[in-house]
What does this fold into?
Amino acid sequence: MKDIKIDNITIGVNHKPFLIAEMSGNHNQSLERALELVDAASNAGAHALKLQTYTADTITMKGAYTINDANSLWNGKELHDLYKEAYTPWEWHKAIFNRAKEKGMIAFSSPFDESAVDFLEGLNVPLYKIASFENSHHPLLRKVAKTGKPVIVSTGVSSIADIDESVRVLRSAGCKDLILLKCTSTYPATPENTNLNTIPHLSQLHNCIVGLSDHTMGIGASVAAVALGARVIEKHFTLRRADGGVDSAFSLEPEELESLVIETERAFLALGNIQYGVQQAETKSLLFKRSIYVAEDIKAGDTFSDKNLKVIRPGDGLAPKYYFSLIGQKAQKELKKGTPLNMNDLI
It folds into this structure.
């Protein structure tokens, strides 16, 4: 599958993971805090900053639904109120995007309706992200695809048929560069319901770059995802979870985000190639393998035994595999204790 080039970054199977820092509602309705989050994401090494572009009225309506789930972080909240609390004011987008660009990060967003796409086009975003809850919103998919820009799609709360249908809609409407993210749409997700083994299957099924939208706590799932082929990792982040906010409970703090960047890159680099034999980097370590040494002074004609031959470090004598074939043979010359036994000593 082909690489995807966005600004000065290449996303592909042979390139290090592309790390997206998702601000979501963790700005807590403060533009100053939002800009601090941008700086923190940049300092941690994130490659991209992502917002969500909606208003409470473009995503739901007053009185439509109140969350009634004791296990939910948002139990008891009416959806309209939750989204009013979480949304990023559209008039902030330009300032946030500009700060991200100044810091060398790619800045983009998840639109939640067609009007958000028009707005983001006005800001010339380089790519789009489709959230899991919008991945069956075909009018939105068509609108985004027609921009001709790369599209990242989260695949949470979707059957295999749903994903296939969404991919077909996007591609038929003009999407040439597609990335699919494995996602479990619970907040937080658990390791047990993350099912990372889906990642290589998702890639093979749709012949595209894949990644993980990770809602688990910590960074372990993301690091493991890279080993399975993920080349895009998206994580919510905040300044401090103790500050509160709609997504703070499952968001990374700056130090954790930095660890995520470092460890996912290490995981990618460690994959390497299928390799056997002694690598160049291991050459000096050959000395610390064992070999056959003379353990007692030996005269010509003496019999080699377990008393006068030992298998020890370093490895500059005959390989241990010759040990048993030597026991019982006669020495051809005088050999000094503490010296390695070599092939020319047997002639």
Observations:
- The mean pLDDT is 96.
